[in-house]
Amino acid sequence: MSKALKFTDDSFENDVLNADEPVLVDFWAEWCGPCRVVGPVVDELAGEYEGKAKIGKVDVDNNQIATEYGVRSIPTLLIFKNGEVVDQIVGAVPKTQLKKQLDAQLTN
Length: 108
Description:
By secondary structure, the chain is of the alpha/beta class. It has helices at residues 12-17, 33-48, 65-68, 95-107, and strands at residues 5-6, 23-28, 54-59, 76-81, 84-90. It has a single domain (5-107), classed as 3-Layer(aba) Sandwich (Glutaredoxin).
């Protein structure tokens, strides 16, 4: 079973902004209850979308990149395509919604 990648301030440009495929980034923190609900779903998606999209997480307590993207509440999930934010999901949402929004970027 795949797990989501770990993105950091140092790896973000290379792993996310320069990626050839769409990238789903989960901005989360250990102490955040809703983040603990979304986390396992994000890990599942990492396996399901392997080879089609990159799926990863940014720990907002240890990385500053969240502030660059105006992340004010967590969990916030951003979908990047060609280095740009193309979609945003805030809060704990069902897996079906995450898949729907991610699938929309795979077909564009």
